[in-house]
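Per-record layout

source: Thermostichus vulcanus str. 'Rupite'
name: Alpha/beta hydrolase
length: 264
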Amino acid sequence: MELLVSTLVSPSTGSSREERPPLLYLPGMDGTGDLFYRQAQLLQQEFRIRPLSLNHPESGDSWEALADWVGSQMEGGAYLCGESFGACLALQVATRWPQRCRGLILVNPASSLRRGPLWLAGRFLLPFLPPGLYRTLSERGLGFLAELNQMEPEDREQLRRAVHSVDQEVAAHRLALLGSFAVDELPLESLALPTLLVAGGRDRLLPSVNEVRRLAERLPQVQVEISPSSGHACLLERQMNLRRYLLKRDGVLAPTLFSASGTR
């Protein structure tokens, strides 16, 4: 649901809602779109923010269907912010409709998953776990997913709720999708979009630092930011501030944001 606060006139820029470019948030494996609120509060002066839920009945169950559905939700000149699973989806959308995108923000992209053993184990075991064991593992896995000590209690609870909201069958299907995601086959070298890549230095779920550096070698306009103390679910951490990265004077997205919103 689009944040109501983003409909207001920005007090610092004087930009109305209509003058600010849209930013669509594509969530991780939970698919809820509910975990972007901390960053949304920071970015509301520059964007009209719309978190998308991948649990929508019309969103589809393949990469192609998901990308088509996201494309149908986009206005021209939109920014895409994808986290983990959502970062893979953002790359799919951007390479299908680069003319609709103005820039990309990819956080701990899960495009590395198929190159490790984790997805194989999950792919073949997850569908057969007893429901009680699945819930127990989901709870115990929170410390593996996130640096919980970097989060406020209410943010930890929101993360817990999002994780527990994912049906076992849905989780298995999304894991299978990540296993089939072939980033090497996407034409990233021709993707002329300014792209911010963010990785958590303490990501214990995926080798995100190595992955963003690998992606950066293929993307023509790229800015890499490593948050040394951040985990995988870093957008809920108290020290994470995407706006600071986006508005760096030497950042690749800063010129488009300055021209769009009048920020100085």
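summary: The two ends are 29 Å apart (CA to CA). Residues 1-14 have pLDDT under 50 and may be disordered.
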